[in-house]
Amino acid sequence: MQNQLNISLVQFDIHWENMELNFRKIEELIEADQFDADLIILPEMFNTGFTMHPERVASDETNERVGNWMLALAKKKQATVAGSMAYHEAGKYYNRLMAVTPGGLVTHYNKRHLFRMAGEHKKYESGDERVVIEVGKWRIALFVCYDLRFPVWSRNLNQYDMAIYVANWPHKRREVWQTLLKARAIENQCYVAGVNRIGKDPAESYSGHTVLVDFTGRELIKAIDDNETVVSETIQLNDLEKFKTTFPTWMDADNFIITFE
After folding, report:
1. Which of 6, 77, 188, 242 would you label with 160, given CA atoms 20 to 30 Å apart?
2. Residues β-bridged to residue 133
3. pLDDT value, residue 258
C-alpha cells in the first residue's frame, strides 16, 4: 500500500445542463494532462452545473449514465474518480458526491449543508452522514461546496488524512473560499483539495482557484484562475504523520456530539 498519493484536480467551464459536452471536456483535459493519478477530483455537479431544476437533469437513467461514465474513466486511468451530481432516488433529489474506483466500488456522500440563498434546500434532500473513503493507505473525507463554511461538520480527530471540497463557488466570494480552505486544513491537520469550476451559469460567474493545501495551510498547487486545466501533485502521508506526531493539536480538541433536527 503506497504512502504517496498522486492527485489530479480538474477545473473547467461546465456546459449548462449538457451532460455529454461536459463528459467530453473532462476527458480532453485529463488526456492532455497525462498524469498518472490515483485520485481524480471533479467540481460540484460536474455534468450539469449547479442547477436548481433537478427534474430536468436527474433521473434513474441519468444516474446510470453518469455512473457508467465515471466507472469507464476510473478503469481507463486506473484511478478513483470523484465528483458530485444531481441524483434521483425514490422520488427525491440529492446533491450527491460519488467516488468510483477502477474495480467498480461506488461510495457516495449526500451534501449536508444545502445553499439556501439559491433555494437548494427546497429542491434537494440534505444528507446526515459523513463519509470517508480509502484510496490506498489514505483516508479521504468527502464534502460539497457550502459544507466548507461549517467547521463542526468537517471536524477531524485523526479520522481522515485529506478533505475534498467540490464546488461551484462564485467569484464574488472567492476570498472566503481561499480563506476557509486553509482554515479547514490547519484546524483539522490534514491536506485539503478544493476543486471549483470557472465560467458562467444563469446565476453566477466563477473564476476557479482550484487548489491543494497542506496541513500548515501552504498552497502546494493552484490552478490559474479562469483557465480550463488539470493541476496535479504527489503528496506524502509520512509528511502529515510526522507533523501530527510533533505538533498533535488534535489530541487537545474539545469533545462534543453532533445532533440532527
Report:
1. 77
2. 140
3. 80
Q: Give the C-alpha separation, 244 to 189, whole Å.
A: 7
User: Does pTM surpass 0.90?
Assistant: yes
Cell numbers standing for residue 93: 433529489
Q: Does 53 fall in a domain?
A: yes
Average pLDDT score, the chain: 96
Angstrom distance (rounded) from CA 26 to CA 37: 14
Read off the C-alpha cell for 147.
459544507
Q: Which domain holds residue 47?
A: 4-252
Could you tell me if 129 and 96 are in contact, meaning their C-beta atoms sit under 8 angstroms apart? no
CATH number at residue 134: 3.60.110.10
| Cα(21)–Cα(9) distance, integer angstroms | 19
**Total of domains in the chain:** 1
Under the banding of pLDDT at 50, 70 and 90, the label for residue 250 is confident
Pairwise CA distance, residues 138 & 156, whole Å: 14
Residue 257: inside a domain = no
For residues 141 and 225, what is the distance between their CA atoms, to the nearest angstrom? 25
d(CA 207, CA 200): 9
Three-state secondary structure call for residue 67: helix
pLDDT for position 256:
81
